[in-house]
Amino acid sequence: MMKVCVILGIAGALRSEELINLKISDVENKDNILVVHIPKTKTNKPRMFVVTSEFEGKVKSIELFNKYLSLRSKHTPHNRFFITYRNGKCTVQPVGIHTFGSIPI
Q: What are the entry keywords (predicted)?
């Protein structure tokens, strides 16, 4: 979860609130790129950015993204993108602002 968060956060220069409000439907996986739509921003101007298959030439971002999504439970009652990852599996609890604030970059 942290790696995916850092990749999306850096690539899109996202604020904590934008990461929290990110929905599954806001991220499109198109072959070897991710197209991310940020509909609700602090400035009230929707944004969009793209993440390529290799982030900074070292991290395979698409593989990490797909792996993270595959861990997500089908019984998750909401569509927030980031959910808690604990003990090798994802729970249904969405990630909160304090968790994002504690991620070391």
A: DNA recombination
